[in-house]
Amino acid sequence: MNFLVAMGLAMTKRKVDAISSGRERSQNWHEDQTKYMLEWHIDYLKKQHTRFKFRKPHHLLCADALNKKFAMGVTVGRVDRHYRYHKENWKYIATALSKSGNSFDNTRCLVIISESEKSTLCDRARRLLNKPIKFFNEMKELFTGSSADGSFAADQNTCMDGSDGSDSDDSRDLIDLNCYTQHEDPLGECNSPT
């Protein structure tokens, strides 16, 4: 019986060691390292196509750049997690800014929310929005425009109705289809084989 108890403890210890070895130790990021990481992603994003999404290979390039500049020994997983952390924070900030009645103080980088609105927020959002937001401008540049929000939408029925404010009536010629020549059939009527 003593042998079985000892065997069970040994197996439990092996399981704990196997589980804990898969997780990396947490790392504290200094402000200049985080700022560099966000700016690296912004610069990389500017060179890419419209629907570009960051994946692990892109975070590997960022990790290499961070390791060269700061010699921090950061891994792809850490860069990915830190990027996702800021993206999740931006989601809370963007949601708060999109609600009517909320405003943003540019001098203090603080979202101004009513007390009744604060009581409805989850703990993480409340902690984030109660103090000045670090890297607000970087997060705004990096994460704004990553989803379709309808800000450039136009009503298809009225988008061509408005005037552009010019005195000339040249813009109306673009809308008038009567100024285009009509297609003429060279054989006369129609080409149907009947």
UniProtKB/TrEMBL annotation:
Xref: PANTHER family: OS05G0118600 PROTEIN, OSJNBB0050O03.9 PROTEIN-RELATED
In Swiss-Prot or TrEMBL terms, this protein is called: Myb/SANT-like domain-containing protein
User: Which species expresses this protein natively?
Assistant: Eragrostis curvula (weeping love grass)
List the top taxonomic levels of the source: Eukaryota, Viridiplantae, Streptophyta, Embryophyta, Tracheophyta
